[in-house]
Amino acid sequence: MSTTTPLAKAAGGTADFFDTRVGAGKMVKEFARKVFPDHWSFLLGEIALYSFVVLLLTGTFLTMFFVPSMTEVHYPEDALPVAMRGVEMSEAFASTLNMSFHVRGGLLMRQIHHWAALLFMASIVTHMMRVFFTGAFRKPRELNWVVGFTILILGLAAGFTGYSLPDDVLSGNGLRITDGVVKSIPVIGSYMSFMIFGGEFPGTEIIPRLFTAHILLVPALILALIAVHLVLIVVHKHTQYPGPGRSNRNVVGYPLFPVYVAKAGGFFFVVFGVLAIMGATLAINSVWAYGPYDPSPVGAGAQPDWYMLFLEGSLRLMPGQPEFVIAGYTISLNVLIPAVVIPGLLFTALAAYPFLEAWVTGDKREHHVLDRPRNVPTRTGVGVAILTAFIILVLAGSNDILATHFNLSINSITWVFRFLFFAGPVIAFIVTKRLCLALQRRDRELVLHGHETGRVVRFASGEYIEVHQPLTDHERWLLVGHEPVRPLEIGPGENERGVARPAYKKAVRRSKLSNFFFADRVEPVTPSELAASHGHGEHEEIESAESNEGLLTNASTRG
Amino acid sequence: MSDLTKSEHVTPPGASDPLSVGERELDRFPNPGLPEHKHRLSDESEAGSKRVERQIVILFVLSLLASIGGVVGYFAFPVGVTLGSVQASTLSIGLGLGVGMLGIGIAAVHWAKALMSDVEQVDERHAQRSDDATRAAAVQALKDGADDSRIARRPVLKGALVSAVAVAPLAFVVPLVGNLGGDWNVSKFRYTMWGPGVRLARDPDGGLIRPEQVTIGSVWHVIPDGLLGSEHMLEEKAKAVVLMVRMNPTELTEAPERADWSWDGIVAYSKVCTHVGCPVALYEQQTHHLLCPCHQSTFDVSDGAKVVFGPAKRALPQLPITVDDEGYLVARSDFTEMVGPSTWERERYTDLPVSDEEKAH
Which parts of the chain span the membrane according to its record (chain B) (predicted)? Predict the structure, then answer.
């Protein structure tokens, strides 16, 4: 340190300033070289985080020019777009037009903001799928799963409140649907509608109210929960995929500084860059094409943003019959079931799943090594089933587009989806589970018999065999490293003295569920099985030589 | 847990060591440990690493140029003049911003992947659970605190605390919620601007309509005369919009009690869907079906606008019409039931008589 440069001196001074005031040294020592594992699927959550940052930045730009007011104005006669000149509209709509046509970069920021919102939701959903299918939600991360789930719900709320702000025909009809759904709530529905709209729909309060929710309440909650989400990641240390050298007691990867500073930091710029280019080149939500909100017109083929399609589809699929009048009061199950019950079930299942699985397995240990989805066939099947139900609802939300594009009858499409909504998830579950089991069997096959080499050898006896290359220890570990999970076995209902055991019924239920999860299973190859297969191979060779079949699968493991 | 005996080795050693996953000492393969590190080309050759460095520098320079380009685009293209200028401005600023960001991002990621050390490192994990001593100390700390507070065996104090804290938010919540609903007069849903003698007008220009203008097969979007420019126009319009159709009277099936609600084959129905309230705007002339584009509820206009498909249950409310002395189409009364989506109490508002004096509200 004898050749101290002025820069190094300044850096040292700054470091000293912070260390003597906030103990920065301890933090840097703790975090600078913290190891994170590497995998492309870990980027999905990062995309969500970064698109949220882009949302905050572009959203701040938009608030500078947006006027959240429903006061009726006439659009100026000399302003763009020409079609809107002199049209009566709310200030919210007028300011949306103004920022799109008269603010440099305004249209760009609106479009980046909208694309970022779509990407935010898409990356949350795919991130959640990654966490689900790899079992990353297991102890100790159940709470972080719930935090992430809540961010998903808040993301829906943010999307919904923002979508409605420009006060155009499409978003106005979205609000009208919301009003219809709210009114269907028993007993308090009408009052809830009044509470939301400050009186009768549409009123003059809803845009300012949505604005406050959209730019303050919802983002503040999301931000707070993102902070919790990230702190918990640090507390738990990131999960890692299984592989040689990776275990439940370690985390293998690269240090935060410099690798992840560059990779993750750089990835923020990548996400921002892609969104900016999308905003520059892909038009989205050109509200002037729809016009200001008017309760009378509605466009055919109107679609909400993709993350709302499942609700739209759910409403579309439901037949109208179950609306009942009981003792003079109306219960609109034709609205409540699709808009409240179905999404409620889907979301509850999603939020509660980690706790359900923990209860079924009775496993109280921490899990830091991820599952390969095939190794947990029932979970993977359940996940694909939920996803299938969701996708069918999304498609049903576009049934009119499907009908016009493919020249099909909308009624028959609707009937097919009604049927598929029930059958699809069951079929998806069965097929997925079987595929997982088949993949596991293939893994076993590979471990027991090695790689095919394509090298066919002829013996003196005239027998042909293909030489198989045994797996290396490192290759094999990925296929045999997971634990076999077996169904819980239930003891007798009475203890030794013939007294009924308490809570026996609950135990029976649990054992049934455990059987549902783990009765069908393929266990990983054990060392003794591998050894036996070697012996078996030799035996087989003799047999096959005798029967002259000439097919031997593990010749290379002989000896 | 205690009611289940688990099969042999599935039960992990348990809570004693929460990190013991994958470590059952039974018949298992051992973890072979990290594979040997493989060097990249840029680690081994000076030329290789120089080339990577050059690539990274080029990316940063590209980003720099693009960002400057974006700023130039801001000044170069005016907005609010023509659509083309708006487009040019959006595109130039956006591409400048985008490529500027993307350049930095790709450069940084490339740097990390190709130049920074890629030797994997290992950190140890520790169980989340605090050790027993810490737990005991935590419990003791809470106990000490509780003792210090002297709350033990003071039920009245506890009760007073809980009640006060529970009730205090009400003075905040009640004014908030109380104000949100305006006048809370939900019976407004029942009444629309329609009433005896209110003329039918074209949406959106407000022109009055004579029956002879309404040709067979045509469909009219109708609002009450006097709606335009009225106070609460949007709220009134949201309830009062009507769809009017004329068909051959022989094709029309009418309930006997509604025989005088139409005029020579002209029928008028509420345009607000009885499902969740979208405007039912798509009319199919051949089948006389009216389709809601939101959720595809389909109503048969030739038969009381009853539901023939989709998620709506109830028929669209019919607006009784006639022709006044001056030959214009007019309403005979307000709707006789509540328009739009169902509410809990909507039945209270049904089957009101079509009398001229009815519209007291």
Answer: 56-77, 89-112, 159-178
Task: Provide the shortest C-alpha distance from residue B204 to chain A (in Å).
Answer: 9
Say yes or no for a CB contact (<8 Å) between A296 and B279.
yes
Give the pLDDT confidence score for residue B352 in this predicted structure.
59
CATH code that applies to domain A40-297:
1.20.810.10
Check residue A93 and give its pLDDT: 97
B48 and B79 in a common domain: yes
Q: What is the pLDDT of residue B3?
A: 39
Residues contacting residue A527 through CB under 8 Å, at least 6 positions apart: B27, B28, B29
Asked if residue B237 is part of any domain, the answer here is yes
The residues spanned by each domain of chain A are 40-297, 446-489+505-557
Residues of the domain holding B51 = 42-114
**Within-domain flag for B354:** no
The beta-carbon neighbor of A528 closest among B27, B128, B238 is B27
Same domain, B158 and B256: no
Look at A203 and B182 and tell me if their CB atoms are within 8 Å. yes
**Quick check: is B174 in a domain?**
yes
Can you give the CATH number for the domain in which B320 is found? 2.102.10.10
B80 and B149 in a single domain? The answer is: no
Residues of A in contact with B22 (CB under 8 A): 247-248, 369, 481-483
Q: What is the structure's pLDDT at B24?
A: 60
Domain count, chain B: 3
**DSSP run (H or E) holding B289:** strand B289-291
Tell me the average pLDDT across A108-134.
97
Task: Give CA torsion, residues B308, B311, B314, B316, to 10 deg.
Answer: -70
CB A131 within 8 A of CB A145: yes
User: Residue A47 to residues A51, A271, A274, A345: CA-CA distances in angstroms?
Assistant: 6, 7, 11, 28
Measure in Å the smallest separation between the Cα of A453 and chain B Cα atoms. Answer: 23
Among A192, A332, A335, A337, the strongest candidate for a mutation testing the B interface, having the largest count of B CBs within 10 A, is A332
